[in-house]
């Protein structure tokens, strides 16, 4: 409601408040809606809560009354007749700017925004048409944009008249469900640029509260209408909502707002409204704006684990948590949540192992606290898969890798090396588990049938271990793989439940098999007779080990011809067969393997694109960003050797830059937080300049001798990074 505030609060609108007070006293009506428009009055009362529950209770109580006492809701009032056009308004603006007389413009703004009815009268394309479908809001978007673009260039009294009218509209007494005209007014008011100013936040908060409290059916209309807003205006509304949340969390001037304890509903209301725009954005392909435009980086600085635990304890109940709206949480913040959740699981599993050992009166061993993987380089795949299969119970412990015959101690570097080499071998075409598609440069699951799919389960576990241990992998799966991996995000209790099946489209197939997808697209757009010219049925053929096998896409598919009428069904069934049904057993094993390590409610927070980033990091190398964030030990960034180093590195090809990154960090991928998250360090090596550079991949540290010239540094660096397999102890 309109909470008690400081006497000087909302001073920008002191003249407006005085005007409203005078109007209230002049009318002498205690029930006048102007009575409640004073945000800074010490004893101002709250706006009546307009939530779904309240409205439902009102309707239920009406139903219990005797018939003679029931009164129907009043019919929707007819709209006033307003004939001003965009050109008329623009002419008025030009005349006002030229003459300095803003009376006509002032009258237009004060009348238009005085009530929801007047807003509709001005901006509805046709006042005689109901426009009550989700397809067309009936809003004259061009007129709305022109009026709002001009608003901030008008005198202060004009702008205040708009805010005064909005307050009056929000204070209207609601006696029944919202009409479509009301929803139109809300849609228009959300685009008001005045709400970028913190001095309007009290009014903005009450607008958001009313919209958040609308019924689900009303929200459905707002979502579909919002997707028709232009990209520029859509982005402005989203940015305004994000700014509102940020400044309420961390106000630059706390005295500008009511105390947090008196407006706890501000942030939940804004986040709920933001979720409507996120829903609208997801309905469009491609989306209006990127999903990352909904991230609020301010949330990176709050207690994320408290938010996560509140969400775990209370779910989507009445206790608000940002985790209920994960689209607003950045991938960096989600990574923190997942890392800490993983660490807590690791500690819990290790503690349980220790307790079990002590309870059996056995001597504790430090190795029992880790998932110890011991492998031979010459038998890397078989040894690794055997180790993971034998140690299923230890998968949630901290990973520790040992290469047989090498003296390296795993402080993180050997683990990175193990992942890199193992992934490289498993995804080799000769291994037969995955097929590499050159056109899309990605891997996909082999559809060949086999007796045992346990290796796919172990590959899934391997990928889960990488996420669990915060290691990025060079895996080239298409986006739909991660969509399938989150279908569902939590493993069902019933193992008979179908997993790894998601809705797939021709766009998904384009990302894997673009040539085949193009052919199916041509079939859909073919203007001739499909049945006679293509002579196809609902049957597809695949080669398996040199044998051609046929599969029906539906019962008796070999007898059903593909026609102009059913070709859409054919394409959809074909895509579903390729991406879901033909590889179901392979992917289900992969799914269970991944979730055997990564099972966590934190996965509910992730989009498929975000899972891909967590698994693979970013392939985009920005060596200039690495240069800016690099730390030095024994060197200064102005030293000649360091200047030589960066001149050489920035001139490297992409392939050599990746080799350098792999040499120094154990991975050629960039983590979620970018190059700065690598904590890369260059240390001075006091050895002879005849030596090659040395790296400590556990600590992302490069030890560089003080080479005398750029040519020598480049030669030694290239030799070092090109021969970078194997570990030893200094």
Automatic annotation (TrEMBL):
The active site is at 698 (glycyl thioester intermediate). Residues 391-730 form the HECT domain. The keyword Transferase applies. One of its GO terms (biological process) is protein polyubiquitination. GO terms for molecular function: ligase activity; ubiquitin protein ligase activity. InterPro entries: E3A/B/C-like, HECT_dom, Hect_E3_ubiquitin_ligase. Pfam families: HECT (PF00632). Pathway: Protein modification; protein ubiquitination. This is Probable E3 ubiquitin-protein ligase HECTD2.
